[in-house]
Specification:
- The structure holds two protein chains of two kinds.
- Chain A is mostly beta strands.
- Chain A has no helices and twelve strands.
- By secondary structure, chain B is mainly β.
- Chain B has no helices and eleven strands.
- Classes of the chains: A mainly beta, B mainly beta.
């Protein structure tokens, strides 16, 4: 069965500092991979996704993620964090032959220090 | 771009009442929609898959009689929480893929249900 692990429950960074949020998945083949952001009481916004091809994916708001097959990872990065980036971030996987169901990680809450 | 509209955004109800949540695809047809539940400070858990014209498919552990799903048309799916209890208080989110597939999966803005 598929699973997604986000090992960091909370991460605190200073505004302007770089950010990396970790995501590891378990799946027999290469799944579809997603990062979503959720502000308090809000729905989900897609930051970026990976299906195939270039393993470094660029997303919105200056985010990028790199798919590493050997490590079963899809870590999210941003070179310079803004205070408005404070939110909950979810990594998710979907099966390529999918019924479009996504399995979500437990989430990482990002706090930004002024 | 395609949008999924979810209503209401927030509902407070008394224990024992039923609450209906609507999920609409605004500019595309969705033969399938998904319902997720998110407890405070937890991740989203898939509850069920709503299928237009057929019965919903529920994930293990989700009570079919408790969470009634009706996919009335190609643009509307409803989730009814029947005889709601405080433990049903949660954030419910729907999602819908247009026919293009999972790469175009869109989420509603969610419904915060509070059962008193």
């Amino acid at each position: 069965a598929q699973s997604v692990t986000q090992p960091d429950i909370h991460i605190t960074v200073s505004e302007g500092a770089s950010l990396e949020l970790r995501c590891n998945y378990s799946y027999g083949a290469t799944p579809y991979l997603f990062w979503y952001v959720q502000s308090p009481g809000q729905g989900l916004q897609l930051l970026l996704k990976y299906f195939s091809g270039d393993t470094l994916v660029q997303g919105i708001k200056g985010f990028e993620a790199e798919f590493k097959r050997s490590q079963s990872s899809f870590n999210l990065r941003k070179p310079s964090v803004h205070w408005s980036d404070a939110a909950e971030y979810f990594c998710a996987v979907g099966e390529p032959d999918s019924s479009y169901k996504l399995i979500f990680g437990s989430g990482t809450r990002l706090l930004v220090r002024p | 771009g395609a949008v999924v509209s979810q209503h209401p955004s927030r509902v407070i109800c008394k224990s024992g009442t039923s609450v209906k949540i609507e999920c609409r695809s605004l500019d595309f047809q969705a033969t399938t929609m998904f319902w997720y539940r998110q407890f405070p400070k937890q991740s989203l858990m898939l509850m069920a898959t709503s299928n237009e014209g057929s019965k919903a498919t529920y994930e293990q552990g989700v009570e079919k009689d408790k969470f009634l799903i009706n996919h009335a048309s190609l643009t509307l799916s409803t989730l009814t929480v029947t005889s709601a209890h405080p433990e049903d208080s949660s954030f419910y989110i729907c999602s819908a893929p247009p026919e293009a597939g999972v790469e175009k999966l869109f989420f509603g803005s969610g419904t915060q249900l509070s059962v008193l």
